[in-house]
Specification:
42% helix; 14 strands; eight-stranded mixed beta sheet; elongated; 21% strand; binds beta-D-fucofuranose; 341 residues; six-stranded parallel beta sheet
Length: 341
């Protein structure tokens, strides 16, 4: 190639040529991110962008679908048309993906799904998945609530619980909602309302304000992510109430998920009683996965990330789920300071 170019005396300079050649070696990835609704999501996007860099051998195309599945369809079709080497998909909900993912498969483009899952008839449409065990997260939260209230001498029938749900149909919502529904039935808690708030702070606040107006006796808020919990706390305080753990003296106990810096700040203030971690820092794993998929080396089809839980106090030291013991860490300033997201 270079000698031919030299002979013809025209074409790309050797520097251009080198960069074109380099570009040819890069793995092109189209990343369809569902949105930017939460601190978790922003951290997830950043983590993946920071790993799929040129230095690491990638050419990344990024699309933010603003929580709209239709926009994700357009992004995926666009990536397929451009014949990327791999599609990374963080799906807004589980269903509806069969057609677009079939199109990607027909074009021989592998699809790596991150975070929430997709439900497709043909499982070969998904090359690999990495994310959290949302059902386990919910079980940790509910077992903690059971132990906590028992330790404080609060009877199950005294609990008046509301569930501020995530985006309906998202794996995180399904797992977390099922957890509180099952635990409420099993333990005899009064789960009086379940309302979706799309994982945002603004909706979390709005939903909680409405719930409080209807049910002034609420004493437990199970918020399906930190941003909703923070919004709910704002509504609680604006209604002249307090978020805390002293239910018998009128506090509203808030449970949350993600354990992002913003949520953990509320834990340290005692306003969120328990925050179950959901780790968004998936970039390095995604990088390894895509390289393995493209390089033809071994990889796991499903990877669960490791997670823990942080409490405002040390009343409950651990919970047991399916025979396995999970530590509940009392939050300290230094843990909060070291939080990356
Ligand atoms: O908990 C929430 C985000 O699917 C795990 O989505 C994710 C959830 C996360 O918006 O903050």
């Amino acid at each position: 190639m270079s000698s031919l170019m030299g002979l013809s005396g025209c074409g790309e300079s050797s520097a251009d040529e080198a960069s074109t050649q380099q570009k040819d070696e890069l793995i092109t990835v189209g990343f369809s991110q569902l949105g930017a609704e939460s601190d978790w999501r922003v951290a997830n996007t950043e983590s993946i962008k920071n790993s799929l860099t040129r230095e690491n051998g990638f050419e990344l195309m990024f699309d933010d679908a603003q929580q709209k599945q239709d926009k994700q369809f357009i992004a995926i079709r666009n990536f397929t048309q451009q014949e990327v080497d791999c599609i990374v998909l963080a799906p807004v909900m589980e269903t509806g993906w069969d057609t677009v993912l079939q199109e990607a498969k027909d074009a021989s483009i592998p699809v790596v799904v991150v975070d929430r899952q997709v439900k497709v008839n043909d499982t070969s449409l998904v090359t690999a998945w990495i994310g959290s065990d949302f059902s386990k997260e919910a079980k940790v939260a509910c077992e903690w609530l059971k132990s906590y209230t028992e330790a404080k001498g609060i009877k199950p029938e005294e609990l008046v619980v509301v569930d501020i749900q995530g985006t309906l149909g998202a794996t995180a919502q399904i797992g977390r909602t099922n957890g509180i529904v099952e635990a409420s039935a099993k333990n005899g808690w009064n789960l009086i309302a379940q309302v979706p708030a799309d994982y945002t702070q603004a909706k979390g606040k709005e939903v909680m304000a409405n719930l409080l107006a209807e049910h002034p006796d609420i004493n437990v808020v199970y918020a399906e992510n930190d941003n909703e919990a923070i919004g709910a706390i704002e509504a609680i305080e604006e209604a002249g109430k307090t978020a805390g753990t002293d239910i018998l003296n009128g506090d509203i106990l808030v449970i949350s998920f993600d354990a992002a810096h913003s949520g953990l700040t509320k834990v340290l203030e005692g306003k969120i009683a328990l925050d179950v971690e959901c780790n968004p820092l998936q970039g390095e794993e995604v990088e390894k996965l895509v390289k393995a998929v493209k390089g033809g080396t071994e990889y796991n089809k499903y990877t669960y990330v490791k997670e823990s839980a942080f409490a405002a106090d040390n009343t409950v030291e651990s919970v047991t789920i399916n025979g396995e013991e999970y530590d509940i860490t009392p939050l300290t300033q230094s843990i909060l300071d070291s939080r990356e997201y």
